[in-house]
From TrEMBL:
<comment type="similarity">
    <text>Belongs to the COX16 family.</text>
</comment>
<keyword id="KW-0496">Mitochondrion</keyword>
<keyword id="KW-1133">Transmembrane helix</keyword>
<comment type="function">
    <text>Required for the assembly of the mitochondrial respiratory chain complex IV (CIV), also known as cytochrome c oxidase. May participate in merging the COX1 and COX2 assembly lines.</text>
</comment>
<protein>
    <recommendedName>
        <fullName>Cytochrome c oxidase assembly protein COX16, mitochondrial</fullName>
    </recommendedName>
</protein>
<dbReference type="GO" id="GO:0005743">
    <property type="term" value="C:mitochondrial inner membrane"/>
</dbReference>
<dbReference type="InterPro" id="IPR020164">
    <property type="entry name" value="Cyt_c_Oxase_assmbl_COX16"/>
</dbReference>
<keyword id="KW-0999">Mitochondrion inner membrane</keyword>
<keyword id="KW-0472">Membrane</keyword>
<dbReference type="Pfam" id="PF14138">
    <property type="entry name" value="COX16"/>
</dbReference>
<keyword id="KW-0812">Transmembrane</keyword>
Length: 63
């Protein structure tokens, strides 16, 4: 039983090492591409709520 845990721990270590290697493989070009994406301005400072006109016969849903 003790040998099985030691044997399986080596497989688990290899699994996590491969996963870490995949996440860390970014070249300089890829990093520059990530930084040059177009930034989105939502205009949160100038935002105003607007009411949409209701259809005839539609309730106001006021509770």
């Amino acid at each position: 039983m003790g040998l099985a845990s030691v044997w399986l721990s080596s497989f688990t270590a290899v699994r996590y090492e491969n996963r870490d290697r995949k996440t860390q493989e970014l070249g300089e070009e890829e990093i520059l591409k990530l930084n040059t994406k177009k930034k989105i301005c939502l205009g949160e400072d100038d935002w105003e709520p607007k009411r949409v006109p209701r259809l005839p016969g539609e309730s106001d849903n006021v509770f």
